[in-house]
Amino acid sequence: MKVAFFNTKPYDRQSFDDANIQHHHEIVFFECHLSHETVSLAAGYAAVCIFINDYLDAEMLEKLDQGGTKLIALRSAGFNHVDLAAALHLGLTIVRVPAYSPYAVAEHAVALILSLNRKVHRAYNRVREGNFSIEGLLGFDLHGATVGVIGTGRIGAIFAQIMRGFGCRLIGYDAYQNSTCLEMGMTYVQISELFAQSDIISLHCPLNPDSHHLINTEAIAQMKTGAMLINTSRGGLIDTQAAINGLKSGAIGYLGIDVYEQEADLFFEDLSNEVIQDDIFQRLLTFPNVIVTGHQAFFTSQALANIAETTLTNITEFEHHGKCVNEVKIEQAIASK
């Protein structure tokens, strides 16, 4: 199948070229995002493949349909960046990568916790400047700390398992209780209880209308003073301005995020020679107890290989059968909103 890949980096091209040896698709890579300005490049391609910061609204989907595109292949698990109602109306098929490496994301969440707690980022910079003072680098034992996990699917469960290894007490919040989490001793509680009891809160839930700004001013007011907040899921789960206010007041003691609600114009690009215009994001970077990484939690060699293989398998299945096991059930997704 002829496929236009948008928003690609060298590492994407390498992993997909390797995986395509077995699939034999005709792949053309574009570095640019798929946008209103670039959608004409997709004309004549039966499939387009996009990443999480390519946003397909109704107008763009209509142009893709007019250009002969029948399949939207997502290199991600989430699909909130596609207008599902418009895709359904046009008869477009959307496929995704439901799981690529839950270990990668869970382990990155733990890396943020360890770095924030033991001030690794600050200690690194001090030592490089010849400053070996440990004043201000005081941490706390993870052993015995209460860790609240919001969203206990596969990634949340793996994260919980790692934290259990540190000797943490586990509490969770999810619409569905995970038997694996229950077996490792997690106690499910109401979200208000989780906020009140947790020394560390880690977000592993999807972004939808119900979870948008799940962490807001009201939620922060319910948290244990000085709690650590970690987000490796979706940026829109946190009201960033509310988090900034929480950091200023001391209500939030530590913040580690790999995602940001306005990340589309920032992440995955080298902006080191530019003035970043997002004042809220710039304010975040001024806090010594905040670590921001640029949506790299998924970024391991195993995850890239799994993303490439699953994506190309999805395209192959659609080409041969007109359907795919990883197809987004659009009507169900719309109904659940």
Structure report:
- With 337 residues, the protein is of the alpha/beta class.
- It has two domains: 2-100 and 301-335, NAD(P)-binding Rossmann-like Domain (Rossmann fold, 3-Layer(aba) Sandwich); 102-292, Rossmann fold (3-Layer(aba) Sandwich), CATH 3.40.50.
- The protein has 13 helices and twelve strands.
- It has helices spanning 10-20, 58-66, 84-90, 102-117, 120-128, 154-165, 179-183, 191-197, 217-222, 240-249, 279-284, 301-321, 330-335; strands at residues 2-5, 26-29, 47-50, 71-74, 93-95, 146-150, 169-173, 187-188, 200-203, 227-231, 252-257, 290-292.
- The strands form two sheets. It has a seven-stranded parallel β-sheet with strand order 8-7-6-9-10-11-12, with helices on both faces. The protein has a five-stranded parallel β-sheet with strand order 2-1-3-4-5, with helices on one face.
- Helix 11 links the parallel strand 11 (252-257) and strand 12 (290-292).
- Helix 2 (58-66) runs parallel beside helix 3 (84-90) and helix 4 packs across helix 6 (154-165).
- It starts with a strand and ends with a helix.
